[in-house]
Write a structure and sequence with these properties.
heterodimer, A: alpha/beta, six-stranded mixed sheet, four-stranded antiparallel sheet, 10 strands, about 25% strand, disordered N terminus, B: mainly alpha, MetI-like fold, extended, binds adenosine-5'-diphosphate, binds magnesium ion
Chain lengths: ~260, ~425
């Protein structure tokens, strides 16, 4: 399905390479032969109308679809050249390297500290309490939350505001030192100010991580991402530099979507 | 906005007003029905509690007759060896009777004498034997001892027997009343807290019968039930809910667990009789078998409650844990089960409370035997609280009526304690999150 006329699905220096990825839920196909590369140290945004398969595609990259009964993923996805759809790849290890932030902030109903410390603990990434304290602090600092919560690390994470909770979830994701962070509409439950903070954060994080973000907001895609893929009815209609997609879309469906004719 | 306020503020339309009134009336009516229902339920509960307490509270105290007993060495220990087994088997009744005869020297006829002795409980033997066993130096001395009154005398003193009634309708005759009046005048009749009820096992004589044996029996039985049904139930629920594939087999299992929960408890008793007793030859009347039967009965309750508690854990928590790379087992043990624990515990305690009040299946496996000794382990013969209540309720003696109600009070007390425990545990675990 690689159509070089309208698509620049391949890029020179990819972190994740997806080829012919198809997904079906209990026999009902949701994604059709997706080809897409995710660039290293940049933000790739996935846009498109509801139900077109953005989340499904995102969840392929850390094999979160494994836990859904009846979900079958075919094709090839490689991270740093390693095929991850292989049965031999441990999904648990993969998810440490490909972290995820969800639409609705979902901190564990534990203390702020334990929320961050959980990942490093189960993966055995730290030795001793001091090291763990340090990981917690740096993760919260990188998520821009440290100053707000440093005095109440032992209070429940669920007691924070929505925007703080989402940054806590981002801190939790980066605490296990992933390479790729997948974000599924991370700002859709946040107010504009909290959204702005998360966007700043994403901009900041792309220096260290490769980020894929699903968003319903064109402005957000335009603001934070370098590359954009437009999904429609389970296929990638168009993918390219964000600026090109928004200023000069080649496909009329893309044009229709970004100008608000549907979606 | 202003338009609407205008409309409702000055409702011009008469039909609209009428409609609104009708709606309010319906609402008030509905609320009244609800309150009436609650009042009816509360009233019935109050009636139950009041009637039980009213009949049962007298069982918590007990009348005694104080006698100067001479612990004659030649009766208790003719050989003088102070051998405990000899001391335990001596004829203490003789001593108590001698004291009574001294108090009432005019009673000469054999029949009257027997009546006179009948004022005392048959347990006088045991009571004096215990005193001597505790302090052998009593032998040869005279001591004032408070001896339990017989159950009829106790009932009379508690006012359950009307002294104005014709003598032939009365279990306590005129002569006995005269004796009691004399004893009363001498200050020899005392009433004390009935500690025996809380410290002893069952007896044929109501004044000697205690509830402690049944309480210990219930404790051992529930211990076995809990030890078997809680881990099995929680593991089964967790496996079915979190790990098992959803297919025809698991559907069948689910349906059958629900069916099991509806099986009458007597059927589990029959099963226990056939399998545990007759096939495996486990001891009859033992808390071990009772606990196993009740575990079978409680298991479906715990599984169903645990499954719904596990189902109620939001999927977002599972996603969050999977997202940071927790394995399936870690997701379940670190997040899902701890979050479901309050619900699981509540279900388990409700199941245990039901098991505590269960009688029918235990009758089938012989826990209805008359057992005086306090069980010391799960294999000793024992009975449980509800069965003890059933046994007492079946006894003809007047004094067992009060003991039956007292037993019910104790059982209800334990049930309330368990429910309170459920609430406390739930609160505790919820606060941790
Ligand atoms: N767990 C699931 N089970 C069955 N069908 C699903 C599931 N998740 C998504 N789908 C279907 O897959 C399609 C794509 O869904 P999704 O990836 O959630 O879309 P998007 O995130 O773009 O809104 C939809 O038609 C949806 O109904
Ligand atoms: Mg989605």
């Amino acid at each position: 399905m690689l159509d070089s006329e309208t698509n620049s699905a391949t890029i020179a220096d990819p972190k994740v390479v997806c080829r012919d990825v198809s997904v079906s839920y209990s026999g009902k196909q949701a994604l059709f032969d997706i080809d897409l590369d995710i660039g290293i140290h940049q933000v790739t945004s996935l846009i498109g109308p509801s139900g077109c398969g953005k989340s499904t595609f995102l969840r392929c990259m850390n094999r979160m679809n494994d836990v859904i009964d009846g979900c079958v993923v075919t094709g090839s996805i490689s991270v740093d050249g390693v095929e991850i759809l292989d049965d031999e790849i441990d999904a648990v290890q993969l998810r440490r390297r490909v972290g995820m932030v969800f639409q609705k902030p979902n901190p564990f109903p534990k203390s702020i500290y334990d929320n961050i410390a959980y990942g490093p603990r189960i993966h055995g990434l730290v030795r001793g309490k001091d090291e763990l304290d340090e990981v917690v602090q740096t993760s919260l600092e990188r998520a821009g939350l440290w100053e707000e919560v440093k005095d109440r690390l032992l209070q429940p994470g669920t007691g924070l505001s929505g925007g703080q909770q989402q940054r806590l979830c981002i801190a939790r994701a980066i605490a296990v030192r992933p390479d790729v962070i997948l974000m599924d509409e991370p700002c859709s439950a946040l107010d504009p100010i909290a959204t702005a903070r998360v966007e700043e954060l994403i901009d900041e994080l792309k220096r260290s991580y490769s980020i894929v973000i699903v968003t319903h907001s064109m402005q957000q895609a335009a603001r934070v991402s370098q590359r954009t893929a437009f999904f429609h009815l389970g296929i990638v209609v168009e993918v390219g530099e964000t600026e090109q997609i928004f200023t000069n879309p080649r496909d009329e469906r893309t044009q229709g979507y970004i100008t608000g004719r549907y979606g | 906005m202003t338009d609407r306020e205008h409309n409702t503020g000055i409702a011009v339309d008469a039909a609209e007003v009428k409609h609104a009134r009708k709606r309010y009336r319906a609402e008030r009516r509905f609320r009244m029905y609800g309150m009436a229902a609650i009042a009816a339920a509360a009233g019935m509960l109050a009636l139950l509690v009041i009637s039980i307490v009213a009949t049962g509270w007298t069982a918590f105290y007990q009348h005694s007759i104080a006698l100067d007993v001479t612990f004659e060495a030649k009766v208790i220990d003719p050989k003088g060896g102070r051998d405990p087994s000899v001391l335990a088997r001596a004829d203490y009744r003789k001593l108590a009777r001698a004291s009574l005869r001294e108090l009432f020297p005019d009673v000469k006829k054999r029949g009257d004498k027997r009546k006179l002795y009948g004022l005392l409980s048959i347990g006088v033997d045991q009571q004096l034997a215990e005193l001597v066993a505790a302090d052998p130096s009593l032998i040869g001395q005279t001591r004032r001892v408070e001896i339990y009154a017989s159950d009829d005398v106790d009932s009379f003193l508690k006012g359950f027997i009307d002294r104005e009634a014709p003598e032939s309708d009365r279990r306590v005759k005129d002569k006995e009343i005269a004796w009691l009046d004399k004893l009363e005048a001498d200050g020899a009749i005392t009433s004390d807290l009935n500690l025996r009820f809380w410290t002893k096992g069952d007896s044929r004589e109501p004044e000697l019968a205690g509830f402690w044996g049944a309480m210990v029996g219930s404790f051992f039985t529930l211990l076995v039930t809990l030890a078997l049904s809680f881990p099995v139930g929680v593991l089964a629920a967790t496996y079915l809910e979190e790990f098992a594939p959803k297919n025809r087999w698991t559907d069948i299992i689910e349906v059958n667990i629900n069916n099991l929960a509806a099986v009458p408890s007597i059927v589990f008793g029959l099963l226990g009789l056939a399998v545990f007793l007759n096939f495996f030859g486990l001891p009859r009347s033992a808390p071990l078998v009772g606990g196993m039967v009740l575990a079978l009965m409680t298991l479906p309750t715990i599984i169903i409650a645990s499954r719904s508690a596990l189902k109620a854990v939001p999927p977002s928590i599972r996603e969050a844990a999977f997202g940071v790379g927790a394995s399936e087992l870690q997701v379940v043990t670190h997040h899902v089960v701890p979050l479901a624990l309050p619900g699981i515990l509540t279900g388990a305690i409700i199941g245990m409370a039901r098991a505590l009040g269960e009688t029918a299946p235990l009758l089938m496996i012989g826990m209805v035997a008359f057992i005086v000794d306090i069980p010391g382990s799960v294999t000793d013969p024992a009975t449980v609280m509800p069965v003890q209540i059933y046994l007492w309720a079946d006894s003809p003696e007047r004094a067992f009526v009060a003991r039956t109600s007292a037993g019910v009070m104790a059982l209800l007390g334990f049930l309330m304690l368990m429910n309170a425990l459920a609430v406390i545990l739930r609160k505790r675990f919820e606060r941790r999150w």
